[in-house]
Write a structure and sequence with these properties.
Blueprint: H1 10-44, E1 48-54, H2 60-71, H3 73-80, H4 84-106, H5 118-126, H6 136-145, H7 148-159, H8 201-206, H9 245-266, H10 268-276, H11 292-295, H12 304-309, E2 317-323, E3 333-339, H13 343-346, H14 349-355, E4 368-370, E5 377-379, E6 384-390, H15 406-419, E7 427-433, H16 435-443, H17 462-480, E8 488-491, E9 515-517, H18 525-535, H19 549-554, E10 562-563
Parallel strand pairs: 1-3, 1-6, 6-7, 7-8
Antiparallel strand pairs: 2-3, 4-5, 4-9, 9-10
Helix pairs in contact: 2-3, 4-7, 4-9, 6-9, 15-17
Bound molecules: guanosine-5'-triphosphate and magnesium ion (MG).
The site of magnesium ion has 5 residues, from helix 2.
Keywords: GTP-binding, Magnesium, Metal-binding, Nucleotide-binding, Transducer
GO cellular component, one term: heterotrimeric G-protein complex
Protein name: Guanine nucleotide binding protein, alpha subunit
């Protein structure tokens, strides 16, 4: 609107105001039409499909939990209480493992050798050390804590097969996309799992979702707790939400053992036993023993953080739907597929892609990424696939096959995915996860070259190690991809949300530093930032950007240039 001219007569003023009103009306109509068009576009939009693949224990479900936690708060709040029994089970297993090793050392039993791994060689060496001195108190604790074996069995029985240890599962092939290895496209070699299986942790948890009286539904009325505080919930009976009588009883039983658990865990001789046997419980999935005060109680309810750390393996392929509720893409549907990563369950992946993913919409997101160094631009995502591997267990064996080194298995799996013809149009994003554990391992003085001879004399620190592994994965992708694709890799630590906030490794070619620019939509930058924030809570450091930056940039499509890392 312009300022009125000087000496404007009343008639001129009337004409000017009428013209301005008319212009505003037209402008409003255009805005309204654009809004309606955007709305229609949105409705027509096809879902974005994100597939989480990777080894067992690589953190796929933990990533999914981050999505849920950030984006599907209501569903998250409903499920949170159902993780209580899983956390009880994780906790009891921690304690029983300690007691098992204490008992083994007291009785001078050797460590059970499932293979000839470095750990077990070290433990053989441990038996050459002088015997530890155990007191009557150790004997009393050992006997008393035997009572927890029954609790573990009870929880495992109630939670079903997803809760069982993997030692006994059928061993399969690393390569899920080799039809020969995967059986036929009907997935005959899927072994214990079926395609689109619903018998995984979702089902296990479903058993424990609360029932609201009179509804017969598996959903409960839960209000959202804050992100990391205690869950807040309503319960018509006035009791704690989601507390089934037997779960309360288990909490109470654990409470009666609480002091003894703490005594045994904090005992220096017991710690020496674990150290000699190379057992690092703290690094194992589902470690909760340090939280005995909170968890071993009738009143225990899981926090968000507990749920992200809880461990229950995924069986089969499970689908989750999320609808965007912010940014310009409100209403955009994302479908995230979480799969079981043990070797035997990988056979189920191939027929699943064959039937489903190859028919999925091809052009999901068009983004132009460019590297700050060379300004090479290319279209990034046709179909998003995220691939998880863990870096920390370079010296460990697969839980399902103790003869196979985890890193070797990672290489085979990655090669198989890169070479898969069904995924030729999919953009692969590699997450090298559990960097926190890798760093801890290196700080403890574990040398990579002892397990990975090709590492040679490189420096045994995190930046050098991650650079080395990234280059290796990049080379595998180059050698095995039927068509050359850009290689995207991210170092992550999906359960430690602030891990990388202080860590800024120097840019590794083709990997960490990404500039997002030039958006030609269906998905805008706020969606991308959201995706990155959720997927890479530890590397896409939101604190570095003013809050709401994504939304601001979303209003300026084409101009957005954001440093993600
Ligand atoms: N310290 C650490 N623990 C992690 C990280 N990511 C996942 N975990 C933990 O590792 C365990 C295994 O993670 P999951 O997400 O269940 O693994 P998964 O890939 O879904 O495994 P499957 O379902 O068997 O295929 C869980 O207890 C997680 O909390 C990480 O970056 N750092
Ligand atoms: Mg899982």
């Amino acid at each position: 609107m312009t300022a009125p001219p000087r000496n404007e007569t009343p008639e001129e003023r009337q004409i000017r105001e009428a013209a301005e009103a008319e212009a505003k009306k037209i402008s409003d109509e255009i805005d309204e039409r654009l809004r309606r068009e955007r709305e229609n576009d949105r409705k027509k939009k096809r879902p974005v499909k994100l597939l989480l693949l990777g080894q067992s224990e690589s953190g796929k479900t933990a990533t999914l939990k981050n999505f849920q936690l950030t984006y599907a708060r209501r569903e998250w709040a409903e499920e949170r209480a159902a993780w209580r029994s899983v956390i009880f089970l994780n906790f009891v297993r921690n304690v029983n493992l300690v007691v098992e090793h204490l008992n083994g050392e007291m009785s001078d039993y050797p460590v059970v050798n499932h293979d000839d791994s470095q750990e077990d060689l070290s433990s053989r060496h441990a038996r050459t050390l002088p015997r530890l001195k155990f007191t009557d108190e150790h004997r009393r604790l050992r006997t008393s804590l035997q009572g927890l074996i029954g609790v573990q069995l009870d929880l495992e029985r109630r939670l079903g097969s997803a809760s069982l240890d993997m030692r006994s599962t059928t061993v399969g092939n690393a390569a899920p996309f080799d039809p020969e290895a995967a059986g036929t496209s009907t997935g005959k070699r899927a072994g214990e799992f079926s395609i689109h299986s619903s018998n995984g942790w979702k089902t296990a948890l479903g058993k424990f979702k609360m029932r609201t009286p009179g509804q017969g539904s598996s959903r409960a009325e839960l209000t959202d707790g804050d992100s990391n505080g205690s869950p807040v919930a309503t319960s018509p009976s006035g009791g704690l939400p989601g507390s089934r009588e037997w779960e309360d009883d288990i909490g109470e039983t654990l409470g009666t053992f609480r002091d003894e658990i703490k005594l045994v865990w904090e005992d220096s001789t017991v710690q020496e036993v674990l150290a000699r046997r190379k057992i690092r419980l703290e690094d194992m999935p589902g470690f909760f023993i340090n939280d005995s005060d909170r968890i071993a109680s009738r009143n225990y309810q899981p926090t968000d953080d507990d749920v992200v750390r809880a461990r229950l393996r995924t069986l089969g392929v499970q689908e989750y739907k999320f609808i965007f509720d912010h940014g310009r893409t409100v209403g955009q549907e994302w479908r995230i597929y979480d799969v079981g990563g043990t070797r035997s369950s990988r056979a189920a992946w191939y027929p699943y892609f064959d039937d489903g993913m190859s028919h999925a919409p091809k052009l999901m997101i068009t983004l132009t990424f460019s590297r700050p160094t060379d300004q090479v631009s290319f279209v990034l995502l046709l179909l998003i696939h995220s691939f998880h591997f863990t870096l920390s267990p370079f010296d460990e064996k697969l839980a399902e096959d103790r003869k196979v080194n985890r890193l070797e298995d990672s290489y085979l799996l990655w090669a198989s995915v890169c070479s898969c013809k069904l995924l030729v149009k999919a953009q692969l994003i590699l997450f090298l996860n559990k960097c926190d554990l890798l760093q801890a391992k290196l700080q403890r003085g574990i040398r990579i070259r002892d397990s990975v001879t090709s590492y040679g004399t490189r420096i045994n620190d995190l930046p050098t190690a991650t650079k080395y592994f990234q280059q290796h994965f990049k080379e595998i992708a180059r050698r095995n991809s039927p068509v050359q694709r850009p290689f995207y890799v991210h170092l992550t630590s999906v359960i430690v949300r602030t891990y990388f906030s202080s860590l800024r490794p120097s840019p590794v070619p083709g990997s960490c530093l990404l500039l997002v620019s030039s958006f030609s939509c269906p998905i805008d930058i706020s969606s991308v930032l959201w995706f990155c924030r959720v997927c890479f809570p530890c590397i896409c450091v939101p604190q570095r950007h003013p809050p709401g930056l994504g939304l601001v940039l979303a209003r300026v499509p084409g101009l957005a240039r954001v440093l993600l890392l």
